Amino acid sequence: MPDNSNLIDWSNTFMCGIKLIDDQHKGLVDLVNDMFNHVTEDEEQERKYLNKVIDEAVSYIKIHFATEEKIMDATKYQGYIEHKNEHKKFILTVLEHVEKFNSGTRIPLMSFSKFLKDWVLSHIAVVDKQYFVYFREKASQKADGTLSINLADGEEILYSSAAPGGI
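User: That's the sequence. What structure does it adopt?
Assistant: Structure tokens below.
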């Protein structure tokens, strides 16, 4: 049973430099840590907690994936389809867990937290890293020295100077 410690410690090595995506990745890490910190091994308590947060978690994950995909599409990222398919497979897996949970099957919070941790870390560290460099290459330097990507709908995505490698 955890002692209210983190399952994942955020590291700047997870940063891509796009503040919006980095903030969302931090949010995913926070979500996993929150789930982990609610592990009590008391089935009723864990069920109440999961019942409260599971839909919110799925919604947050979908919003994050849509954000990444919007930028990939706008910048004509060649790995867009494969990346989107990875997102789709993950969402389907999570939804299978939700369906089992909603039908009364016990989903141990510890194992679900670890499943999410493993996926989030491998996805950010391996799959997402593939587009980090590409996005930097597609960004335009503004007069003040910052980098940005302008999307088709007029939205501007700014890079953070805190990203590894310094932008």
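Residues 162-167 have pLDDT under 50 and may be disordered.
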